[in-house]
Amino acid sequence: MRGFLPDCDIRVPGSLAEALGLLSAEPGVWTPFAGGTDLMVVYNAGRLKATRFLDLSRLAELRGIAEEGASLAFGSLTSFSEIREHRAVHQHFPNLVKSARATGALAIQNRGTLGGNIVNASPAADTPPSLLAYGAELELVSLRGRRRVAYDRFHLGYKQMDLAPDELVARILVPMPEGRSFHYFRKVGTRQAQAISKVCLAAHARVADGCVAELRIGLGSVAPAPVRARNAEAALIGKPVAELPLLAARAALLGDMSPIDDIRASAHYRSVVTQNVLGHMLRELASV
Question: Which residues form the FAD-binding PCMH-type domain (predicted)?
Answer without folding.
Answer: 2-179
